Amino acid sequence: MTTETISLSRDQGAAAKRAAVAVRADDKAMLRAAADLTRALNKPNASIYWADMLGSALLGYGALALAIWATSTGILLVAALVAVLALYRAGSFIHELTHLKPGSVPGFRLAWNAIVGVPLLVPSFLYEGVHNQHHAKTYYGTANDPEYLPLALMKPWTLPVFLIAAALAPIGMLVRFGVLAPLSLFNPRLRQMVVARYSGLQINPVFRRSKPQGKFARDWLVQETAASLWAIALIGMAATGVIPMRAFLIGMSVASGVMFLNQVRTLVAHLWENDGEPMSVTAQYLDSVNVPPPATLPALWAPVGLRYHALHHLLPGVPYHALGEAHRRLTRELDASSIYFKSNHRGLAPLVGRLAASSWRA
């Protein structure tokens, strides 16, 4: 969820410098090594996908139930934290769904939507068909990229707004699926707006989504209908007391925590220094972030392979469970002077500090 009131403030000198980076020639040696060394890692392991997703969801919902039933504040807070972390991990598989080839993990998309996507009101159609544009070579970092904002070049107040909007996203999802979706069935103009502006997990406020076509349109309809029925049921049960207000608010708070944590991770997934010009693959890589070991906390705030986000932009076909091995192979084989190492960062705090400093300078 973003706001169209965000405005850009550009420093001409910084923009010129970043434009030079944007047209940087591709490091063909690095790109060739990345492809050659990881060729055998492209096949997803279905057992890992199922065990990880189901285990994370089970832990998350169990912890949420404990938080709701807890009689002490301490147990409630600990259980809620576990629920946020586990459901965040389970929800992060929406990213993997956009890269899995059809049939590579049979039934996984349906199961994820039934267990995670619809209950959390983030069905996979919100990301499928959107995220692929973020990986398009000529779209990345431009106005056509739904997942890019030049945050490093924007006013400092946009950073807290960016995070606060995410914390309020569960309310927005309830309204989107429980109110706007049903009403849009009777109003074509409203339907057009819902599809174009409120049907994608995007951060670019000027991005407008196209109407779905073919099989994807049918998948969209099924997922949206299920999410709408669930949202209407939640609103109705909370309003009539079938679900106690305390339980409803705890559930919404956990969902808010999941969205907030994901937005924090998004805040440091890239350096956000591109000024809208098309970028080479190497420049896109350098604008993206790896937070590899020995750092340990990224396993919590950047799960399901997201700690290797820059590497993922080099090798979007490598499944999340193989990215660690891909990184080890590249660091072992590439010379220490390789550009590959320039996207490796130490942790969350230095990245946030760098982004905040860039924003203040801009």
Automatic annotation (TrEMBL):
The keyword Cell wall biogenesis/degradation does not apply. The keyword Transmembrane helix applies. InterPro entries: FA_desaturase_dom, Fatty_acid_desaturase. The chain crosses the membrane at residues 58-88, 108-127, 157-183, 220-239. It comes from the Bacteria. GO terms for molecular function: oxidoreductase activity, acting on paired donors, with oxidation of a pair of donors resulting in the reduction of molecular oxygen to two molecules of water. Keywords: Membrane, Transmembrane, Transmembrane helix. One of its GO terms (biological process) is lipid biosynthetic process. GO terms for cellular component: membrane. Residues 77-341 form the Fatty acid desaturase domain. PANTHER family: DELTA(5) FATTY ACID DESATURASE C-RELATED (PTHR19353:SF19), FATTY ACID DESATURASE 2 (PTHR19353). This is Fatty acid desaturase. It comes from Sphingomonas edaphi. The lineage of its organism: Bacteria, Pseudomonadati, Pseudomonadota, Alphaproteobacteria, Sphingomonadales.
